[in-house]
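Q: For a teaching handout, I want to show students what a protein-ligand complex looks like in token form. Below are the inputs, and the small molecule is flavin-adenine dinucleotide. Please produce the holo structure.
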Amino acid sequence: MKSNQFDAIVVGSGISGGWAAKELCEKGLKTLVLERGRDVQHLKDYPTMTSAPWEMPHRNQIPREDKLENPVVNRCYAYKEDTQHFFVKDSEHPYVQEKPFDWVRGYQVGGKSLIWARQTQRWSKYDFEGPGRDGFAVDWPIRYEDVAPWYSYVERFVGISGSYEGLDTLPDGEFLKAWEMNCVEKEIQQRIKAVYDDRDVIIGRCAHLTEPKEVHLQQGRGQCMARNQCYRGCPFGAYFSSNSSTLPTAAKTGNLTIRPDSVVHSLIYDDQKGKVTGVRVVDRVTKESTEYFAAVIFLNASALNTNLILLNSTSKRFPDGLGNDSGILGKYVAFHNYRGVVNANYEGFDDKYYFGRRPTAVMMPNFRNVKKQEMDFMRGYMTFYSAGRAGFGHADAPFGAEFKEANSKPGPWSVYMMMQGETIPKESNHVSLSPDQQDEWGVPLLQINVGYDENDEKILRDFHEQGEEMLTKAGCINIRRGDSKQSPGLDIHEMGGVRMGRDPKTSLLNGFNQMHLAPNVFVTDGACMTSTGTQNPSITYMALTARAVDYAVKEMKKGNIG
Ligand SMILES: Cc1cc2nc3c(=O)[nH]c(=O)nc-3n(C[C@H](O)[C@H](O)[C@H](O)COP(=O)(O)OP(=O)(O)OC[C@H]3O[C@@H](n4cnc5c(N)ncnc54)[C@H](O)[C@@H]3O)c2cc1C
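A: Here is the structure, written as tokens, with flavin-adenine dinucleotide included.
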């Protein structure tokens, strides 16, 4: 038992777990990171990071057989021959879709930090005030001011490129040099700004080192080369991942132990001591069971897996899952509505091009219901667009001279616009454990029962109308609306189920991500989210994690946890 005793345990090594590990180790705690997947070392385990298309057996396409066997992960745009080793195959990790839900996962050291799209926007005060003001979910127990210093703290370390805009809907952060809009994007930006005084159009913010600072060089990371082949793992460590950044930093302290291939089955609640003492682990390869013990436990297994672990952590005291006296564990799951797109073309600018493969798009912060309720739907959506030229490597032509000729000329400009809509957390959108099906490690399968509602349809309609109107006013032609009709989950921003709040009767976590009824357990991945906002969520998970570790360690020093 002694060798299985640590000061802290972190479950999961992805974006939020990496941050928990770094912060706990830097504060001097002997920390065990339990990761269900295989080990992935920065650089060494990025087999395709510099591969050319002709070096891949299927020229970077996924064979038909794989598509048939794994329909869910194949719907993810980033799943290709060069990245497939970082994604979970449906056939290997089944779950129950009570309603269609595309659950995209990355089970390895680094989790989805290797394969995320790296877009990073802070929440605004309007997002934290949303549920309280509009009367849905529960009021967040924190406000923007509580998180702002922690956003700054993580942004400095991660390296976020962005422009200073002074917007209250999308607060500025600690930015590296911003990427540039191309000429058509600027033209659209200016025309939209000229017509609408409620719409801001800015270059995207993303976790790329456009000009590395000392803090990044010390991590062994270098400048982004605009290859945009990030999902393979970056040879320069230029985008943020746990593997290139937080985990090596944690390791340098000498306080980190990472145990890959460790499937956390549940948390151990000692009924006599009246507290959580550790975790039960099943070895992924040998299937052997082990227990590990610690004074404090951080759950960072990704939103739905953290729900699963807590629901599976039953004891005499908590027969329905850890801390679940209220019965709301697994409920109020929400996500982002990505269904709407608007495509268009742009005439002119034929003598203009742009540099590289920029890893971000243009962003328009939410402009609906921001300061008060104004529409016939709740909340709103963020809009993204980008413009590019066809041709140059993308021309469709037969092989040979004709192919080379077609691919050496840039084609016409096209414009792509998409939405990222807030969804309203509802009790009926929930996850639960299968009563009769288990995976090969003896863990019940997760049943997912999450769907759209009328509010989502209204938001989609509004985006289509506004998107088309804006692109028309911006001078685009051939404008086409699209509804991907994609299932929830494919947004890969699933959140909630273990939400924060003030009252243990209506929430599981307090304002420091600490379980109301199990105070040495902290949940700082997407499961903690009371509402979804319209921003890409991961930078908020990072900030909340660093903040929660700071609080947990202070509480341990005071003797309140441990
Ligand atoms: C293609 C794609 C694009 C994305 N783009 C963006 C974006 O632009 N911006 C953004 O903010 N977010 C984006 N995301 C989402 C982002 O990846 C997630 O929000 C983020 O990774 C969540 O961090 P996490 O720590 O909660 O989970 P993860 O990074 O998924 O890490 C969880 C870890 O826990 C491990 N684990 C799970 N269960 C167990 C268990 N029982 N025992 C032990 N270990 C376990 C997993 O193997 C995994 O390593 C994108 C995701 C994908 C796939």
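A: Two things your students might notice: The chain has a mean pLDDT of 97. The radius of gyration is 23 Å.
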